[in-house]
Write a structure and sequence with these properties.
The chain is elongated, with a radius of gyration of 53 Å. The strands form six sheets. Strands 2-7-12-8-4 form a five-stranded antiparallel sheet, with helices on both faces. A four-stranded antiparallel sheet has the order 3-9-11-10, with helices on one face. It has a four-stranded antiparallel sheet with strand order 16-17-18-19. Helix 3 packs antiparallel against helix 4 and helix 6 packs antiparallel against helix 7. Strand 5 and strand 6 form a beta hairpin. With about 475 residues, it is of the alpha+beta class. The protein has eleven helices and 19 strands.
Amino acid sequence: MATKSSIHIKPCNIASSEAHNRRTAEYIRNIGESRIYVVSKLSTDNEQWVNPDFGTTELRTHYDNIKRMVKEKTGRAMQEKERERKGKNGKIIKVAGCSPIREGVLLIRPDTTLADVRKFGEECQRRWGITPLQIFLHKDEGHWLNSQLEAEDKESFQIGSRWFKPNYHAHIVFDWMNHETGKSRKLNDEDMATMQTLASDILLMERGQAKAVTGKEHLERNDFIIEKQKAELQRIEETKRHKEQQVSLAEQELKQVKAEIRTDKLKSVATDAATAIASGVSSLFGSGKLKDLEQSNENLRHEIAKRDKGTDELKAKMQQMQEQHSKQIRNIQGIHNQELETKDKEISRLNTILEKAFNWFPLLKEMLRMERLCYTIGFTKDMVNSLLMKREAIRCNGKIYSEEHRRKFDIKNDIFKVEKNPTDNNKLVLTINRQPIGEWFREQWGKLKQSLYNSVQTEKRGRGFRM
């Protein structure tokens, strides 16, 4: 007997998942939770697809983008909530809020593929402009049979010693908006009936009889809702159970870590705890294997041991280098101190000799002072030798520098000579044209200032009024 095709479309309420969970519990309150189950070994047959043009996997983000689009296109905010308005006859009419994102549930066959459902979604987009955003194929949901298998039941199969009745179905999430106008797509009863036929043709399912023929409300819709809510509640329960196991495992590992916190096993225990937590999280989301994690844990231990060994070797090498460096610095410092001590002794010896020379030759200090003065003025070495060693007079042209006045003065055929100070035989004096150099510099400086003063006065007189 072929399975009948049915699709149920409803708004996808993104913002109220908690309220949705409460409604789920109400649907299956009298069904018997122990009969609802998700067979994890069948989860590998599940498939999913996200529209690459969607731009984001978060429906909330896409919902917010639609709200902005509606505001831009229509100039009005999107009406999200149900509202009331008064009709022409004065009666209050309830107007449903906009449902820009809607979800459809399809009954499928065991061999239905993701490509089949995608083809259905593409055809819906071509005919009515509703865009498929996400598709999920669930082939691991159903319930256990407590009674004997019925003769006409061709879908149930045996797992171990029990019989399992699968609920093969697909969820397809549509964007129900016209992004050119900013308005919601309008599908009437005829469109929805055509969609039922389209699903049966593409998915090779038997089309159910229309309500107009049977005169009865379709049971498929309620069945879909119940089965869907059963599956969702089961997933919630499974998630809760895994989280409780995870918390228990983490508490056990925490106690163990606290017990061994002062031992050398701390690093290994922390790694084991992290591995156990990673294993629980991996099981919660259906990915990863415990053996792989154990192997990764072992590899991590080897890496830690290898790293610690390398670190210890590096520390030892650094310590050795620091000791060698400190030893070299001490040796160099010792040599330097010895050299300084030798130089200090030599300087002290030379100062003693120089002091004796000054006592034996009183004019030696004056000769050194004259030498420094001559070099400061600008004389060359040969000129200094002529003045001091040969005691000769020299004739010069050019410029000489005054350290006192910090400037140079012109000389022309002037005669320089080092002579004894006429007032003190133990002193020497440098003369220019038989005039002490100090007096000559001061005289030249006075002439320069007078010349500058005269130039200023002449300039001031030149700026005055003439009659």
